[in-house]
Specification:
This protein is an all-alpha fold. Helix content is about 45%, strand content about 0%. About 10% of the residues are buried.
C-alpha cells in the first residue's frame, strides 16, 4: 500500500465524522444505511475502482485499517484476492502485540 493510501486510511480511522460523509453519487455506507432504514437488510456494497485487494496479513494493524476504510466507503469488506494467511512470524507478532507480551 502506498504512502498516500495509508495516510488516507489513517485519516478515516481518526475521524468518525467520515462515517457520515456524503458521497456525490448518492451511495451510502452501512452506517448511513442503518440510520436511514433502521436495518442493514438490503444494503448492497458498491464495487468500484476504490475496491482493491491488500497484501496485509490478517489481524495486522494495516489490514484492520483497510477493512475500516472499506466499511466507511461503502465497499465490500473482503476482497477475493486479499491475503488469506500470515506467516508464522506475523502470527506471533500480532499475538504478542494483542496480549502486550
Amino acid at each position: 500500500m502506498g504512502r498516500k493510501a495509508k495516510k488516507r486510511l489513517d485519516v478515516f480511522l481518526e475521524n468518525d465524522d467520515l462515517l457520515h460523509e456524503k458521497f456525490p453519487d448518492g451511495r451510502m455506507n452501512v452506517s448511513q444505511y442503518v440510520e436511514k432504514y433502521n436495518s442493514d437488510e438490503g444494503f448492497t456494497p458498491v464495487v468500484n475502482d476504490e475496491f482493491v485487494y491488500t497484501d496485509a496479513a490478517p489481524g495486522t494493524p494495516e489490514k484492520l485499517r483497510v477493512l475500516a476504510y472499506r466499511v466507511r466507503r461503502g465497499l465490500p469488506i473482503f476482497h477475493p484476492l486479499d491475503r488469506q494467511k500470515g506467516g508464522k512470524e506475523e502470527f506471533w507478532f500480532c499475538l504478542k502485540r494483542f496480549y502486550r507480551l
